[in-house]
Write a structure and sequence with these properties.
hypothetical protein yedk fold; 5 helices; 15 strands
Amino acid sequence: MCGRFYTDDDEAQYRAILALLYQRNPEEAALLLRKTGEIYPTDHVPVLLKHGPELMQWGFSRFDGKGRMINARSETALEKPMFRAPLLSGEGSRGAAVPAASGRCLIPAASYFEWETREGKKVKYRLRPEREGLFTFAGIYRTEAGAKTPVFVILTAPAANGISFIHERMPVILPQERREEWLASGEQAARLLGQGTQEIVFEPAV
């Protein structure tokens, strides 16, 4: 799964995303909600759409109103109405100046965190793709009544062999050459669900 990740305002590519976000929404009060550093569910962070960055909150509200869904299994996303509709949405190809009611997005990050259960204790690790620098999770989003911003979830897949001892699941991390395809159309995105980066490095998180 993916329960926390990290953003770095000092990373050059992330600074460029922030600059675009503030340039496009200079009077947006919701920008005051933006979090940086270690990101938790329900935090607000920039995500990428085809037309540019938007501020969104992490987590879909559950049907019963109790808690949030923060991840969606890539293997079954097309079978569940909550995830199927935004995954197959045509928003990505519209090039609209504002986000549609639902669609696909990319969530920028510098690393993410996972916990290994070892002798009854939790050991925290920081993980990232082998290639250093900014990377992006595959995500989907929707708007919800009463929410200040749209909300998103991160797609997950079975963990790569080298990190499965930490946790059996990992986020879908799209290689740079696949990002435009993910945003372009639902049909293309559906083909990418099993094509996330597998070369992941890790270290104990302090």
